[in-house]
Amino acid sequence: MQVLIFGEREIDELLAMPDCIEVMHRLFSTLDDANAVQPLRTIAWQPNRRGGVAVMPAYVGANDAIGAKVITVFPENREAGLDSHQGVVTLHETGNGRLLAIFHAGAITAIRTAAVSAIATRLLARADAGDLAILGSGTQARTHLQAMRAVRALRRVRVWSRTRQHARQFADWAAKEIPCADVRVCASAEEAVRGADLICTVTAATQPILAGEWIAPGTHVNAAGASVPGFRELDSGAVAQSRLFVDSRESALSESDDVRKAIDEGRIDQAHIAGDLAEVASNRIAGRRDDRDITLFESCGMAIEDVAAAAYLYERFAKDPRPARFEF
User: Which of 44, 120, 164, 272 would you label with 173, given CA atoms 20 to 30 Å apart?
Assistant: First the structure.
């Protein structure tokens, strides 16, 4: 049995951000309960919660694809020069379950997470949004900048990170990526987001770093960092004042402390979730209602996104075969 192995290099070459955005758009615009199956992720944390391992299986009917992501999450890895997410995505054929391919999970996660935020931005942000604030400076900050650039014309980029050196490194890179934009490092999260009309939070924060009182009317927020219990980026005021959309209601209510804490504190109830991304992408519900709406996309990250990306990569490889290798 031949099993293909896709490393970071192959994924970066075959899964360009604009292509991944379209893959995710097709996924969400055709998604319903009849053509996708994905139980909640199972996570085994170390006793000190310094890190853990998660298992995320899924079936995607639109691609006739079945697979799973097995990934470790160690938020402090950045200090050691490593990605916080390490693991694999597997893709199987649906006739007999044979293993077709293994993919570097960190590479897929980095691209598809930002691509889904791009879909949310395309659907929910104002058409003229282009003043971007990024809270965080790691891998997801970089891919989110690429994703936001793909769906909106960026005029200014402000970045804040708990480590100023990391923020400076990100800003130097971003200035080369978008030479026409004003790129600057901010001393605080508040300074970064005041006046922005597009905000991406991509941190491993366990306490809120974004306060509702800092967010201007008409802003769109992609909250992509706190996807499992124990991590939180937004205070309850930010969630309560927003028109809230999620990738999965079940995941948001079970795993997102941005949402769960706002419910626990009595600021919102479950009905505050206006809809999921599939409902907006398929025009079943309205997204932004007017230019003063603050829209919020709470991204938990779903296994169907990983499996759909893996299926696309496998199909691309069939058309453009090349040696594949796997490197951590």
Answer: 120
pLDDT tens digits for range 42-68:
999 999 888 899 999 999 988 889 999
Radius of gyration over every alpha carbon of the chain, rounded to an integer in angstroms = 19
Torsion sign across C-alpha atoms 276, 277, 282, 286: positive
Q: Is 218 helix (H, G, I), strand (E, B) or coil?
A: coil
Contacts of 48 by beta carbon, 8 Å cutoff, 6+ apart: none
For residue 161, what is the DSSP state? -
CATH architecture of 4-109+304-319: 2-Layer Sandwich (3.30)
* Contact between residue 245 and residue 297 where contact means Cβ atoms under 8 Å apart: yes
Q: Kindly state the tokens that stand for 172.
A: 């130097």
- Answer yes or no: are the C-beta atoms of 227 and 205 closer than 8 Å: no
Q: Exposed, middle or buried: residue 116 (CB in 10 Å: 0-12, 13-18, 19+)?
A: buried
- Residue 93 amino acid letter: E
**DSSP codes, 60-97:** ETTTTEEEEEEEEE-GGGGGGTS-SEEEEEEEE-TTT-
Q: Which two tokens stand for residue 124?
A: 């929910």
- Strand pairing class (42-45; 182-185): unpaired
The closest of 110, 150, 202, 162 to 22, measured between CA atoms, is 150
Taking each helix axis from N to C terminus, what angle separates 303-319 and 105-124, rounded to the nearest 10 degrees? Answer: 110
Tens digits of residue pLDDT in 70-96: 999 887 777 777 777 789 999 999 999
- CATH code, residues 126-301: 3.40.50.720
Whether the Cβ atoms of residue 46 and residue 40 lie closer than 8 Å to each other:
no
